[in-house]
Amino acid sequence: MTSRHLVHLAESLETVRADTFVGRTEELNAVRAALGAGETAPSVFFFHGPGGIGKTALLQRIGAEARLHKRTVYQVRGCPGEATSASLAQAQAISDDPGGLLLVDGVERYPKIEEWLAEGILPQLPVGALAVIVARLPPASAWHLDLGWSRALVVRRLGPLLPGEAARYLQSAGVPTAWHEDVLGFARGYPLALGLAAAAVREGQHSRGRQLTPPLARQLLDRIVGELPSPAHRQALEVCAHAWTTDESLLRAVLPEDASSAFDWLRRLPYVESGANGVHPWELIREVIDSDHRWRDRTGYETTHGKIRRHLVEQARSATTTAVIPATLALTYLHRHNGFVSRFITWKSPDGVHEDTYRPSDRGAVLSLIEVAEGAESAHIAAFWLDRQPAAFRVYRRDGEAVAVAAWLRLSLPLDEEVARDPVTAACWRHARSRRPLRSGEHLAIARYMVAPDAYQRPSPVMDLMIHRILAEFIHGEKLAWSFVVMAESPFWQRLMTYIDQRPLVQPVSVGEHHYTVYAHDWRTVSVQRWLEVSGLVELEGPVAQPAAAAESAPGPLAVLTREQFGLAVREALNAWHRRGHLADNPLTRSRLVSGRPENDPVAAVREVITDAVDALGADPDAAAWHRAVAATFMRGATTREARARRLGVSLSTYRRHLARGMERLIEDLWNQELRGADTPQR
Length: 683
Hints:
Layout: H1 3-20, H2 25-35, E1 44-48, H3 55-68, E2 73-76, H4 85-93, E3 101-105, H5 113-121, E4 130-135, H6 141-145, E5 153-157, H7 163-172, H8 177-187, H9 191-202, H10 214-225, H11 231-242, H12 248-254, H13 259-266, E6 272-275, E7 278-281, H14 283-296, H15 298-318, H16 324-332, E8 353-357, H17 363-374, H18 376-388, E9 393-398, E10 401-411, H19 416-421, H20 423-435, E11 443-451, H21 461-476, E12 480-488, H22 494-499, E13 503-504, E14 509-511, E15 514-522, H23 528-535, H24 563-575, H25 580-584, H26 602-618, H27 624-634, H28 641-648, H29 652-676
Parallel strand pairs: 1-4, 1-5, 2-3, 3-4, 11-12
Antiparallel strand pairs: 6-7, 8-9, 9-10, 10-11, 12-15, 13-15, 14-15
Helix pairs in contact: 8-9, 10-14, 11-13, 11-14, 12-13, 14-15, 15-16, 16-21, 17-18, 24-29, 26-27, 26-29, 27-28, 27-29, 28-29
C-alpha cells in the first residue's frame, strides 16, 4: 500500500467524520474562542463522561478544525500495555510551540499521567497553546484545590445528545426516517448506542419497538461499563439500575455486608448522577443493565426485585412530611418494568415545580387555575371548599408562583350544605351509602381539582406529583373507608384506575358544562396491605391492565332511604314483627343497619338490631316508660290499645303519648346507626 493511498484514506476518513459529527456546540465554541483569545483565555479543557459518550469524536473534531487553521496538533493516546513514550514525547514538544494544540485521550489508561500532566507538561504550555483532555472521570480534586488553575482550567461533563442532534446523526448515518423514532427511543441520545443501532438497522438486525437485544446490550456493557471489581459491585449496579434512586439503606436491604463501600463506588461512576434522594444511572445505562440482568438471570432478577420492593414498601408506609412523595414515587417506579404504567407516569423531574401547602394569598391564583381548566361552576365549588377545608388543597409552585393545584377532601358526615352545593360530593355519598356506609370514626376522601393548565390531566411531571399525593393518601389514610378520585371524563385514565383497583361509578357527574368520571375504592373490603401485596404481583409482567385486588367480599347494593322512608320502614318492621314473610320484604333487610353482621339471615338481623335499640331505651331511666310502651305494643302480644294500657297500668292517653315518644326516640337512634355505624352510642 503506497504512502499516497494512506494519506488519501486518512483524509477521506476525516471528511466523513466531519460530515457526520453532530452536537457539542457549546464545547466546540468554547475551544474555538480560546484558540483565538490569547493569554486571557483558558489554557486547558477537561471533558469527561462515560465510555461511548463521544469523547474521542469530540477530540477528533477539535483536532481537525485546528489543522484547518494550520495549527500543529500533538496527541497522547494509546491502550493499556502499549508503549506510550512516543506520545509522551509529543506532549513535551508542545512547550516550544505557541500555536500548538495538545489532545489527550483516555487519561484513565495511563498510571499517574494526570499528575504528570498537571505538574509537568501543562504548566509549561506557552501563551497561545491549548490542551484538551478527555477522560471517563473528572480531574482529581487537587486541580480544583489549586487556585492557580481556577482561570486556566475548564471542566465540563459530556452528556447525551439532544433529540434534534441525535436525529441529525441518524440522518447522516443513512438510517431511514421510518426507523428514527424506534432508534431514538432506544438510544436516548447516547452516541455509542446511536451508532450501534444505526449499524444494526443498515444490516437488517435491529427490530422495531425500541427492543434492546442481548447482543446489543452486551456491546454497550462492554464499552460503557466494562469489567466490574467483584460480584458485590455487579449487584450494587443492578440495584441502582432497577430502583428509581439508590441510597445506602436500599443497598443494605439487598447486600448488607457491602452497602457502604458499594454506595461509595456507585457515586463515583461516570454514568451515575447524584440527586436529593440518592444516586441513579443515566437512562440508557439503566435500561441496558436492567434488561441484561433480567435476560441473564431471571431468578436472581426477581429475587433482587423482591428485596427492593420490601424495602420500598416499608419506606412508603413509614415516610413523613417531605419524604412521602419521593418514597411513593420510588415504589411506583417498580411498575415501570411492566411497560404499562409508564404510559401514565413519567417519573421525570418537574422542572422546578414543588408541592406546597395552600396559603390564603393563593386564593385568587388557585380559583383562576380551576376556572381556566374546569369552568366557572367548578371554581365556585372550589371556593366553597376553600372556605371549609383550606388545608385540603395542595399548591404546586415554580419560583413561588402557583402553577397547579389539587385537593384531598376529608368528609365524615353527609352534611346537607355540602351535598347540596357539590354534585360530586353528593354522588360520592350516595355511592358509599348504597354500597357500604361509613362506621363511627371513619371518613371518606375525594381527590378533586387535579389542575395543571399546561397539561390538564395528561401525563406530565406535575401530574406525577398529584397522582403520587393521592397514592400516598391511600397508603397513609387512617380510618379511610372510601376514596374517590375525580377525573375529567375520558377513557384515557380508566385503564390505570382499574389497574390500581379504583372502580368507576356507573354515571358520570356533571359540573356546569364539564363531565367527570368518579373512581371509588372501599378500603375495608380491600385493605391497604392487601392492595400493596397484590399490586406487587403485576409489577414485572404487564402490560395488560388488571385490578390490583379482588374484593374479599362482594356485598350487594344497600337500600338508600330518606329519613322519612327510614322511619316508615322501622314502623312497618315493628308491625310485621311476628310475620317473617312481611319482614323479609322490608327495606331494612338491605340497609346499613344489618350490613356486615355475622348473621346470614337478614330478617333475624333486623329483629336483633331493633331489639337491641328497644333494650337500650329500657336502660335509660328517662325513657323507661317509652320502652315499656313500645315493647308491649309490638313484642308482647297484647291485641288492643286498651289492653296494652291496662297491662302497663296507665291511661289510654298516657299510653299513646309514651308510645309516640318511644317511637320517635327509637327511630332517631336507629337512624343515627344507619348514618354513622352500629357502634354509635345510644343516648
